[in-house]
Amino acid sequence: MTPEETVDYNIKVAWHAISRMYNTQAAKHDITTSIGFVLLNIDQENGTPATKIAPLLGLETRSLTRILRSMEEKGLIYKQADTQDKRSVRIFLTEEGLRGKEISRQTVRHFNLKVREKIPQSELNVFFKVVGQITGMIEGKTLYDDFTPKPLRAESPA
Questions:
Q1: Could you list the residue range(s) of the whole structural domain that residue 127 is in?
Q2: Which residues are CB-contacts of 146 (< 8 A; sequence separation ≥ 6)?
Q3: C-alpha span between 57 and 123 (Å, rounded)
């Protein structure tokens, strides 16, 4: 099986192409794709608990910590203790963060609009169904329940 014939290769290549495209757009506004996705997931009115952001984006906490630090340095966000639970920190958008969120929103919408102009809804429905099934298999952690790698055969002397 060639890489081009595997499911994971095609998903990875497509995501990297999308990520590069988003990063090209984001760089014009001094942000990154990761920052854009974080901005999109922060509640404009009430802020968002810092602990809720990483799971929304499928990020490790360490990665999010670095991104949030960078966002704070760029003046996109500020942190504030939660009024209900003082142990928790909420992330809020600054005016600059709101502008970045709007740019990110427009960029994502434009991409999706262009994809929908070229690919019929019926094909997108199949795509969403298949990707959802793959994600479900992975999250269900049953993908490798019956998998045992075959031992490598020792090469015979020539």
A1: 3-139
A2: none
A3: 25
**What is the H or E stretch that residue 49 is in?**
strand 48-49
Between the alpha carbon of residue 4 and those of residues 9, 11, 40, 76, 137, the distances in Å are 6, 10, 32, 40, 21
Classify residue 153: in a domain, yes or no.
no
Taking the C-alpha atoms of residue 148 and residue 1, their distance in angstroms, rounded to an integer, is 19
pLDDT tens, residue order, the chain (158 aa): 898 999 999 999 999 999 999 999 999 999 999 999 999 999 999 999 988 998 888 888 888 899 999 999 999 999 998 888 878 899 999 999 999 999 999 999 999 999 999 999 999 999 999 999 999 998 888 888 888 898 888 666 65
Structural domain contains residue 145: no
pTM of the predicted protein model: 0.82
CATH number at residue 8: 1.10.10.10
User: φ, ψ for residue 49 (rounded to 5)?
Assistant: -60, 135
Number of domains in the chain: 1
Q: Would residue 106 count as lying in a domain?
A: yes
